[in-house]
Amino acid sequence: MPKLYDMHPSGNCFKIRLLCNMLGVPLTLTPVDFLAGEHKRPPLTDLNPFGEIPIFVDGDLVLRDSQAILVYIARKWGGETWLPTDAARMAQVMEWLMVAENEIARGPNDARLHDKFGYKLDVELARRNAARILGLMNTHLSKHLWLALDRPTIADIACMPYIGIGHEGGVPLTPYPAVEAWIGRIKALPGFITMPAL
Amino acid sequence: MPKLYDMHPSGNCFKIRLLCNMLGVPLTLTPVDFLAGEHKRPPLTDLNPFGEIPIFVDGDLVLRDSQAILVYIARKWGGETWLPTDAARMAQVMEWLMVAENEIARGPNDARLHDKFGYKLDVELARRNAARILGLMNTHLSKHLWLALDRPTIADIACMPYIGIGHEGGVPLTPYPAVEAWIGRIKALPGFITMPAL
Known about the structure:
By secondary structure, the first copy, chain A, is of the alpha+beta class. Chain A is 52% helix and 8% strand. The first copy, chain A, has helices at residues 11-23, 44-47, 66-77, 87-117, 123-143, 154-164, 177-187, and strands at residues 3-6, 28-31, 55-58, 61-64. In chain A, strand 1, helix 1 and strand 2 (28-31) form a beta-alpha-beta unit. Chains A and B meet through strand 4, helix 3, helix 4 and helix 5 of A and strand 4, helix 3, helix 4 and helix 5 of B.
């Protein structure tokens, strides 16, 4: 059974638990003491030298980075549904995995790391980044039901968590009704599970 | 023939030109007047609302984000060579595409944007980020010839440019000999082309 090194309030860990639950993939959860810095010391840094969670272990394979882990799960257990392999549609999903890795990480995620976990970072910059990406997503989702294709994909799973819990970093969704409606559609999908504050 | 909205000193545009040249994909280049902000106005923002380049157009398909574009080119013209479709190896390539999108963008790329293009950003933070990712890459490349697999993939193409031109942002490679050697291996690949300062 694959194993997830997990922390309950992490949106990046949550997205792995969520996709696994939707696909019926059983998962062994190993809680990590994040506040004590367990992920920044051996033995966890032997698994992931980046000193971050989630870490996903499936047999001999050890993967870091939540977006890369979603790709693995979708390819191994999701057929063509959550990540198609044809060039155009795969690239359209990738565009939004990159938004999760970049604009969302440096926007609502950073703002929450500051407010909730006391990270020393430029929270005003994080809130400006959040406003920019939420505006772009709201415009996009005013014309599309899902981020990348005409159905849910790992693009939606990757981007949703830190958007949905952004209010914990002073980034509420009230100005972005199309984003709020999209989160509601994800919550209505079969197999959805939630996380604190979502 | 696919079209690239291009800027010559952009590492993100270069990586698209490089992979296309290696695969023998002919490309129409449309130069963008970056310093005049052409990418932040219509008609380019109609193609990419994010207001960024590169933009890649192939028939009806319009793609933004250099990593997503590499995925498209590799899937459409590269067979299984540059981006394999099996779950484990695809995810291992993805781990490093995410490093290009996150750690390298917020490290050597940001430092160069500050020094070369006058961007107002925290350049000391960018240099600390650069030192962290270069240290991690140097350790990894001391044990591996290529970033993701036992051969070059789009992981190497995605990560290399801003590492190789980091000296334009005060991030030289002298302390990272395994990274320098890896860049040398990429430069020796068939079809390699270069860019200014590389």
